[in-house]
Write a structure and sequence with these properties.
With about 180 residues, the protein is of the alpha/beta class. The protein contains 7 helices and 5 strands. The chain has one domain: P-loop containing nucleotide triphosphate hydrolases (Rossmann fold, 3-Layer(aba) Sandwich), CATH 3.40.50.300. Helix 3 packs antiparallel against helix 4.
Length: about 180
């Protein structure tokens, strides 16, 4: 059987510190980090994706993740930490455009994650300045993420706190996979 790295996904609304925590976890576990393609889109275009761009953003996230996983296989790297998942694009597509067409694909892709770390909206805020998304309260996004994860019945642990205590909680959660 071929080596397969463990994929850990971080989910949460904007400014919950997903990127900071993903990078720290990848460093701690000597793993690789998959950036959030939605943020890359926002940085490149200076605006959130339009409705007609959501599918390409989701596809870019999948492709980026597969490239990093392939790299992890080559390096025999045990952990791949995903800053987010295609599911978050589907949720934003639903919230912003009342379009649920991306959920089926996003949910089908979710089976690759061994664990999801859910970051609540009261967690340490990221350094997005100004905030990358506007229009949807973080609590609403969080509730949609939580509901979607609950309906899929995939392993999920909520990680809150700030700084080192949150990192340690996330490390402990990831270590449950290898105990």
């Amino acid at each position: 059987m071929a080596f397969e790295p463990i994929r850990i996904c971080l989910m949460g609304a904007e400014c919950t510190g997903k990127t900071t925590l993903a990078r720290a976890l990848a460093l701690h576990f000597s793993g690789l980090w998959v950036p959030d393609c939605r943020h890359l889109f926002l940085d490149q275009h200076g605006r959130p994706p339009r409705e007609d761009e959501q599918t390409s953003v989701m596809r870019a996230q999948c492709e980026q993740e597969e490239r990093v996983v392939a790299q992890a296989r080559q390096m025999a790297c045990h952990h791949v930490i995903c800053d987010t998942a295609p599911l978050l694009t589907a949720i934003y597509n639903d919230l912003y455009f009342a379009d649920t067409c991306l959920y089926a694909s996003a949910q089908a892709l979710y089976v690759g994650y061994a664990l999801t770390l859910l970051l609540p909206p009261d967690a340490e805020q990221g350094q997005d300045s100004p905030p990358r998304d506007v229009g949807q309260p973080r609590a609403l996004v969080h509730q949609h993420v939580k509901n979607a994860l609950r309906s899929m019945h995939y392993p999920c642990i909520e990680v809150s706190g700030v700084g080192e205590s949150r990192l340690q909680a996330a490390i402990s959660a990831v270590q449950t996979l290898t105990l």
